[in-house]
Structures are given as structure tokens and as C-alpha cells.
Amino acid sequence: VFTLRLLIYGFSSIIWCLGLLLSDLPKNQLQLWLAAILNLMALGMNFQWVFQGMQRMPKFSLIQAMTSIGIAIYFLLVFKRGIPVGADLWVMGIFQTVVTVGAWIYVRNHFRVRLFSFKGVRELLGYIYEGMPNWVFGLLYNTLITFGMLSIRKLTLGGPFQNHNDSFGNLQRVAMASQFILAFGGSVIYTRIVVWRHERDDFFLRVKLVCFAVITLGLFLCGFLHSIHNWLFPLIFPRTIYQSGAPYLSIVLFGRFLGLASGILVWSLLAYRKDWVAVTCAILPVLLSVGLHFYYVPLFGLKAASFLYIGGEMGLFLCCAMAFLILKKEIINKSA
After folding, report:
1. Is the pLDDT at 79 greater than 70, yes or no?
2. CA 21 to CA 238: how far, in whole Å?
3. Most buried of 11, 143, 181, 239, CB within 10 angstroms?
4. Which of 81-95 are b and which e, b meaning 16 or more Cβ less than 10 Å from the residue's Cβ?
5. Which residues contact 168 (CB under 8 A, 6 or more apart)?
């Protein structure tokens, strides 16, 4: 797996870098794209699956938490107004690259394995084909969470929505930071779901209770956040031009909680080998959300982008919940 990931992401990054260097992009944009490539490479070489397979997710969560804390401390201590565009991406990329390299060295030394090897690659390709539904679902979900930020600039050109693209970008950056935290909990819960599937008779009840807890916590925290957004948002983003995004911060953040709840239901489907059912659940909400962007965002700016995002997350959650309940009924009927 390490070998294949290194080849895929390494080759893609090299091609991408060559294309950028041959382009006529301004220097600041070139640096921004190169930082994005560094982050993509670090993400692609993520070591989570090793700790997940060895049932050592608490250690992985600790590593990720310390990485996030280190990045946050650096931002607070070093970053000032007027920093170059993309400096935050460079910091995140460098931190994550150092941690990723260190983690793989630990895996190699601790398990005494050879990381780069072509042995078993053919067999691995078969597993990749088997995991194709996960790839498709990941593509659909990442489209849902990124389409608004990538498209709002062009969709609001010429309209009365000056700086809405920057304001919505700030909302998504805060949401992405919260997703780091939620992802730690999710990675632990997902592995437990597989264990519950084989060891617990109350599997469906446990999954429903965890989803209920996640959504309840999200409603409480985001409701509290919405009640204080008038003074909190200017502290995070002091410039007046960004204040149009303040009322929608809690909405975008709650979408991440819905995403975690959907992930729990998806893993429940995967535990029963309903991989393509999970993909089917994502198709309609994602395509509908993306399609409506072209009509509503030019009319309502970031307000539309925010509600279309959370609408897509809500649609995905409802579809997954429906599939989950159908699966529960099937299992009960088989055991009756």
C-alpha cells in the first residue's frame, strides 16, 4: 500500500509541479499552488490505515491532535496581519510532512517491515478494485464540501456580492479546522462499528445512539456559537469586508457534524458489505446541491452557498439513515 500510494501521489505531484512551473502564473499564485501540492502529498501518504488496521487509533488520534495543536500554536505566535497569501498552507504542509515522515519511520522500525516494495502490488490492485465504491463515495463527498468554495468567485462575478468569495472561504477554513477535530473522533468510532458488527447484538441501537449524540452535540455547540457570532466573528476575522459571513458560521460548522453522522451510517453499511448502497445515497444530494449552485449562488451569494452546502449534508444524512433503516429491517427479517 505504501509503495502504491508513493508512486501515485509522487508521480501526480511531479507532473503537477512541472505544469505549474511551465505556466505563466504570478509568483504568489504559484507559491499557493505549490503549497497545495505539498498538503496533497502529505494527505495521500497518510498513515491512518496502519494504526486503524492494528487497532491503535488512540495513538493515531494523539499524533493528529498534537500536530493540530502545534499548527495552531504556530499560527497564534507567529502569524500577524499582512502575511503572504498561502503562508498558512505552507505551515500546515510542512508540519504534516514532518509528522508523516516521522510516523512512517516509526512504522518501519517498530514493525520491522520494508516500506517500498513491489511485492504483492498485483494483489493490492485487486483490493483497490474491490474498494472502488469507497473511492467514488469519497469523490462525491469531497465535491459536496469543496464545490461552493471553488465556484463562488465565478458565480458571483458582476453581482452585488463583493468579497463574498473571501468571506465564504473563511467560513470553510474554520469548518475545515473543526473537521480535523471531528475526524479524530470519527476515525475511532468507525473502527468500533466494524467490531460491533461482529461482537454486539445491539449493533443498530448503538449506531443510532452515537448518531443521535453527534447531532445533539452539534446542535448545542452550533446554537451557542450562533448566539455569540456577533462579537466572536470579528475577533477571528477583524476586517469589515468579511463580516457578511458571520451569521452563517454556525450553519457551515453544523454541516460538519452532519457529515460525521453520515460517516457513521456509511460505515454501518460498509460493515454489511453495502458499499454501493452508500454511493447511491450520495449521488442525488451531491448532484442536486452542485446543480442548484448555478442558479441560487448568483442570486444570493454566500447565503445560498452556505445553505446549499448544509442542504447537501442533510440530504446525504437522510438518505444514509433511510438505507440504514432498510438494512436493519432486512437483517431482522432474515433472523426471524
Report:
1. no
2. 35
3. 143
4. eeeeebebbbbbbbb
5. 148, 149, 152, 245, 302, 305, 306
Decide if 288 contacts 147 (C-beta within 8 A). no
Residue appearing with cell numbers 461552493: 148
Average pLDDT rounded to a whole number, residues 262-277: 92
Q: Are 247 and 233 in contact (CB under 8 A)?
A: no
Task: Dump pLDDT digits (tens) for 307-331.
Answer: 999 999 999 999 999 999 999 999 9
pLDDT at 213 (0 to 100): 96
Residue 306 is predicted with a pLDDT of: 94
H, E, C per residue of the chain: CHHHHHHHHHHHHHHHHHHHHHCCCCHHHHHHHHHHHHHHHHHHCCCHHHHHHCCCHHHHHHHHHHHHHHHHHHHHHHCCCCCCCCHHHHHHHHHHHHHHHHHHHHHHHHHCCCCCCCCCHHHHHHHHHHCHHHHHHHHHHHHHHHHHHHHHHHHCCCCCCCCHHHHHHHHHHHHHHHHHHHHHHHHHHHHHHHHHHHHCCCHHHHHHHHHHHHHHHHHHHHHHHHHCHHHHHHHHCCCHHHHHHHHHHHHHHHHHHHHHHHHHHHHHHHHCCCHHHHHHHHHHHHHHHHHHHHHHHHHHCHHHHHHHHHHHHHHHHHHHHHHHHHHHHHHHHHHC
* Average pLDDT taken over every residue of the chain: 83
Q: Which residue has the cell 451510517?
A: 265
Q: Which amino acid is at 297?
A: V
Distance CA 118, CA 113 (A): 13
Phi, then psi, of 156 in degrees rounded to 5: -105, 5
Q: pLDDT of 222-248, one tens digit each?
A: 999 999 988 888 887 777 777 888 899
pLDDT of residue 123: 63
Is the model's pTM score more than 0.85? no
Amino acid present at 61? S
Report which of residues 154 and 294 the model is more confident about: 294
